[in-house]
Amino acid sequence: METRNITLSIPKDILSEIKLIALKRETSVSGLLTQMLIDLVRQEDLYVRSQKQELHRLEEGLDLGTNGKVNSTRESLHERY
């Protein structure tokens, strides 16, 4: 994977915490941020794919076993007993 360098502006107190987290995970700040951004992109991709799949299902509709025929009238469905 080709990489590119970027510059980030991070508050000093947050950077100190990030360095501690990276140290605990035995990685660099760059490695930690890279992995977090990769995870973010994957989650977003999964969300978009899932959303498209569900919208497709909504467009198709569900088979409720009626073969597209309604055997009841509106009145019979709303009868009170």
What does the model show?
The chain has helices spanning 12-24, 29-60, 74-77. The protein has a domain at 12-60. The protein has 81 residues and is mainly alpha-helical.
Characteristics:
mainly alpha, 60% helix, 3 helices, 0% strand
Which term fits the overall shape?
elongated
Low confidence ranges: none
Output mean pLDDT: 91
| Helical percentage | 55-70%
Whole-angstrom Rg? 26 Å
Largest sheet: none
Q: From N to C, what is the helix and strand string?
A: HHH
Question: CA-to-CA gap between the ends?
Answer: 69 Å
Protein name: CopG family transcriptional regulator
Overview in brief:
It comes from Stanieria cyanosphaera (strain ATCC 29371 / PCC 7437). This is CopG family transcriptional regulator. The chain is mainly alpha-helical and 81 residues long.
Structural topology:
Elements: H1 12-24, H2 29-60, H3 74-77
